[in-house]
Structure formats: structure tokens, C-alpha cells
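Recall from the previous chapter that SMILES is a line notation for molecules. Here it describes adenosine-5'-triphosphate.
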Amino acid sequence: MQINLSNLGKRYNYEWIFRNLTYTFESGTSYAILGHNGSGKSTLLTVVAGHNLYSEGEVVYTQDNKIVAPDDAYRHLSLTAPYLELVEEFTLLEMLDFHTRFKPLRKNLSNPDLIDRMRLQRSKNKYVKDFSSGMKQRLKLGLAIYSDTSLLLLDEPTTNLDQEGVAWYQEHVDQNREGRLIIVGSNIQHEYAFCQHHLRISDYHTSPRK
Ligand SMILES: Nc1ncnc2c1ncn2[C@@H]1O[C@H](COP(=O)(O)OP(=O)(O)OP(=O)(O)O)[C@@H](O)[C@H]1O
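With both inputs in hand, we obtain:
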């Protein structure tokens, strides 16, 4: 997946979050969107994911040299973010069955294989609502990283993870980078250390922002 942003701008009410953003995210490359709290990292990620409307400019998605209609872009992407909820009423096995009906897994992994990779074997019949916050984060990351998508969007990926969880994230994202466009929204170096390019969202502010 390649994404071209042209003069992109997003406004909430009368406040411009970013403006005049022209940038190309190349396929097979990893990018970090950097900026202080409230600078607009999540806003840009949700706009790129098509979950949030932009106010001006253009977003063009290209896959294998063919333009992807914006309404179809969601088929090619996976996103994880603190504000996205899991289905709490499912057990882990039910959650995976549900998710993989819409988003098959990479590398012909089965659902039990993914549970092994997430190191959640002992919790396969546990309800998601009874997971710890770190287990929920590992589940969200596992679903995103291991979905068979060419665009991986990671917003604050190590939220709620301990040191072992951070190492797990780094290992698994590294094993699943090849050929994919990855965009990380973050302020924490260990979340985006693997990214070749950095986009500072404050470069696209129209005035100082709090
Ligand atoms: N739905 C909304 N309506 C109005 N303003 C919003 C909305 N969502 C976000 N904002 C504003 O947009 C700005 C950017 O928020 P955003 O969440 O994108 O920042 P961020 O860089 O991801 O922050 P953080 O590092 O704290 O997660 C903030 O001023 C925020 O208040």
C-alpha cells in the first residue's frame, strides 16, 4: 500500500489540527508520526484509516499500482489504538473466530497459532472482559499485526504493556514488517525505533497548539 496526502487539512469546529500536509507514505516502509500530547497524531492516523473525515485536500491509496477506492481502503488495513474497543462479551477463541471472518490472518496462521504467538494459551476460554489491560493490549496488537493487511496503523502501541510486553511488540512487529506500510503514532522511542522516517505533525500546525 502507498498513500499520497495532498494539501491535507483537518479541522474540528473552528480549530485546524493540521493543514497543508503533503506527504507520501511508500509501500514496504515504516513511518513514525511524532508530536506532543494533543498535537494531532491520532487524528491523522484515523484520517488515514478512513475512520475520520478530512476537511480539505486529498488522500489517495495505491495498491500494486492500482488506485484503491477510499471506501475499500479498510479492507487493506489494520489499526490498533487505545480508543478502539474489543468485544468484551466474547472469549478469546470467539473473538478470534469473529475477527478472522472479516480479516484473515497472515502466513496461513490458524487462530490457535495466533493465540500461541500472543502467549495467551492459558486464556483461550476466558472472557475478554476479564483480561488484564496488558492482555487486552497484546490481543489488540496480535489482531492488527497478524491480520493479512498491507497497511498497519499503530497508535500508542505499547499502552499498558510491561517490559516483557514491549519486547514482545518489538519482536512481532519486526517479524511482520516486510512488504508492508507501517505508520506508528507515538511519543515513545521504543515504539517507533524501527521506523525509517519521522513526520512531525507540528510542522503542519497553523498556530501554536495546546
Ligand atoms: N472529536 C473531536 N472533536 C473536537 N476536537 C477533537 C476531537 N478529537 C480530537 N480533538 C482535538 O484535536 C487535537 C488533536 O488530538 P489528537 O488526539 O489527535 O492528539 P494526539 O497527538 O494523538 O494526542 P495524545 O498524544 O495525547 O494521544 C486536540 O486538541 C483534541 O482536543
